[in-house]
């Protein structure tokens, strides 16, 4: 059984902690901000796509497109909430 990958990964994290924890936390903080921006942008895109489908459903009197549009709009809003509320909480883990 070969488990050197786990031990070398743990050693790498320990070496980062011992060497310069400040730079690691700065990297972690900036990556959280980038993740927050990406998740919010994906949610906004999903919401815009939902609005387009919703308007298309109203224009063609298509209840299926209306239903899909409102679901996508609400899902986009949920993803935006995750990006703005939950992702920043990751910074408090360490």
Quick recap:
By secondary structure, this protein is an all-alpha fold. Helices cover 85% and strands 0% of the residues.
Can you walk through the features of this model?
It is a single chain. With about 90 residues, this protein is mainly alpha-helical. About 85% of the residues lie in helices and about 0% in strands. It has one domain. The chain contains three helices and no strands. The chain is rod-shaped and about 65 Å long. Helix 2 runs antiparallel to helix 3. The model has no long low-confidence stretch (mean pLDDT about 85).
- Count the helices. How many? 3
Average predicted confidence as pLDDT = 83
Number of strands: 0
* Molecular shape: rod-shaped
Whole-number count of domains: 1
Q: Spans with pLDDT under 50 lasting ≥5 residues?
A: none
Report the sheet-strand fraction.
under 5%
Reading the helices and strands in chain order gives: HHH
Task: Give the C-alpha Rg.
Answer: 21 Å
Alpha-beta content class = mainly alpha
What is the terminal separation in angstroms? 32 Å
| Biggest sheet record | none
Helix content: over 70%
